[in-house]
Automatic annotation (TrEMBL):
UniProt keyword list: Kelch repeat, Repeat
Source organism phylogeny: Eukaryota, Viridiplantae, Streptophyta, Embryophyta, Tracheophyta
Pfam families per record: F-box, Kelch_KLHDC2_KLHL20_DRC7
Domain F-box: 22-59
Organism expressing this protein natively: Platanthera guangdongensis
Protein name: F-box/kelch-repeat protein
Listed PANTHER family: F-BOX DOMAIN-CONTAINING PROTEIN, OS02G0202900 PROTEIN
SMART domains, A to Z: Kelch
SUPFAM superfamilies attached to this UniProt entry: F-box domain, Kelch motif
Amino acid sequence: MSSSRNIRAEYDQTPQHHIPLIHSLSDDLAILCLSRVPRKYHHVLRCVSKSWRALLCSEDWLSCRSRQNLTETWIYAMCVSKDRVNCCYVLDPNALSLNWKLLGPIPPQCIRREGMSFEALGRKLFLFGGCSCHEKATDEVYCYDACAGKWEEVARMPTGRCYFLSAALGDKIYVTGGLGLSSVALSCWDIYDCRLNEWSSHQDPSLIPDIVKSFAFEGKVYTVHSTWVDRQYARAYDPSSRSWEDLSRQMTSCCHGPTVVSSGILHMLDETHGTRLMTWEKENEEWVLLGRLAQGLTNPPCQLVAVGSCVYVVGHNLSTVVVDTEINGARPEGVLVGSSLAPKLGSDVSVMSCKAVTI
């Protein structure tokens, strides 16, 4: 009897046996098998077990899909309805039948907010700040993990901001500007480190609080400024050296529409006279016409997002035009060739921002 008790005590003290991801397969082989499952079925994999759900949120999973060239990019559009209700839609560009789908409810605190910023880093989407008729500018930040398929609150901004500017560069997000802020807040960058889930503030005397647009390009944060005397100019901020560089005045034309970087090339949608896709020619420091988009297909105001060499022009009610910049080449006198999508939505929505997430 005592011998039996000793064996039982010994068994209880031994570490719990590892349960493989797939019975009779090593975890390495199981990950190789599961990584081949298309992204549209990942929500099913998450429901199988806790270990599978943890796997889909791991770096091993992402690196395995990347090594095998199995990654898929989905497009997310943050929208607002005519009733001033915020919502998020998602598009799978790899699907046989292109169709925007409602992602699901965003955090309830953000449903009625205005002046929020929407950015993407890695596999995550971020909603920053904002305000409403019932609350002042908030410092709250919410994150959507596309692998886990859920929203959660993350570290708050050092300063509550509304109608401000942001740019994602590397593994950091740079935030500045906004309404109703002190002069100290307007002359600093609030910088979010995604890996550490931490914020830091960097005072920058050279940061002029008349920024009307910011975006990341070639390892720098580009800013476009407009003064009270209606003078526009552009600058570039290098985070590594914390230095500024004055840019050609031609760069300021990107205020005429949204911008996006596709295959390392900066594009801009000029919405002043119809819709024209422009390309920034670095050597001559000027915008060059790539081509016009057919009237009736776009529904301005539009937002841009890139997947590889394809630029997606997303307009009112999520009307979408896809242009492959490598196939088209320059068509200064012609219309760009592409595909289009005009979804039938249950409500009238305007697109605030579009981002791409690759898994």
